[in-house]
Design a protein that fits this description.
single chain, mainly alpha, two-stranded antiparallel ribbon, two-stranded antiparallel sheet, 6 helices, 4 strands, about 55% helix, rod-shaped, At2g29880-like, At2g29880-like C-terminal domain-containing protein, At2g29880-like_C
């Protein structure tokens, strides 16, 4: 019975040495921990027993070592990187916002569709499709721009024609008005000469007669009369009879 206990202790020490050996391969700076008294040694065994890979080296344990406690929330192993060592208390501290390490999907779980890398070549057909769409868009934009430009030019042309027509009308009206003024001046001179040719009229009667002929119609009517009719019309208007 005593030999059996001694064999079990020796086997346990060999396993502990094996665990430390693999652990220190990945964490050489933690060699001082081996000689210290570890209050939370079970946590160290949990971490090392999980067989977590770190860097290019890995940690593994003897599959016969069933004494190590495993810590697997939702079938996910805990990595030693998730813990921080406190040299003051010689303990490994679990972070408050701990999240289990990433677990790769099972073979039965459908994998998401893969996307080509950014530097991969795009199929020629898709490139041509995009180029064609861009060219079509550019062509449609050009067509819209040409149509808008055509509408602007057409409206501008119509506006210029309208201005030209109105300007011509105004010019004709001003020209006609100027001609009428010239004719009125000419008629005034003619009327005054005609009034002076009427016999037996003093200056006061001539001035009153010129004042009576204050419209173009009266002037034209007066010029169509004979000298005798003009004298009778003056006497009638002025009440000389």
């Amino acid at each position: 019975m005593g030999d059996s206990k001694e064999n079990n202790k020796g086997k346990s020490r060999d396993k502990d040495n094996y665990v430390w050996k693999d652990y220190l391969k990945s964490h050489p700076s933690h060699s001082k921990l081996r000689g210290k008294s570890m209050v939370d040694y079970e946590y160290l065994k949990i971490v090392v027993g999980g067989g977590v890979s770190s860097g290019n080296n890995s940690i593994s344990v003897d599959p016969d070592d069933t004494d190590a406690t495993t810590f697997e929330p939702e079938n996910r192993t805990v990595g030693i990187e998730e813990f921080s060592y406190d040299p003051n208390s010689d303990t490994f501290i679990t972070p408050n916002n701990y999240e289990p390490a990433y677990q790769p999907p099972s073979p039965n779980q459908p994998s998401p569709p893969s996307h080509p890398p950014l530097d991969s070549e795009v199929p020629i057909e898709k490139q041509n499709c995009h180029k064609r769409r861009r060219s079509e868009y550019g062509g449609s934009s050009s067509a819209v721009g040409i149509n808008n430009q055509g509408n602007v030019l057409e409206n501008l042309s119509v506006g210029i024609e309208t201005i030209a027509v109105n300007f011509e009308k105004i010019s004709n009206m001003m020209e006609k008005r100027e001609k009428d003024r010239d004719r009125d001046r000419e008629l005034e001179g003619i009327i005054w000469d005609v009034i002076k040719e009427i016999p037996n009229l003093d200056d006061i009667t001539r001035f009153k007669t010129a004042k009576l002929l204050n419209t173009k119609a009266k002037k034209d009517f007066f010029l169509k009369m004979s000298p005798e009719e003009r004298s009778s019309w003056i006497n009638f208007k002025l009440g000389n009879n």
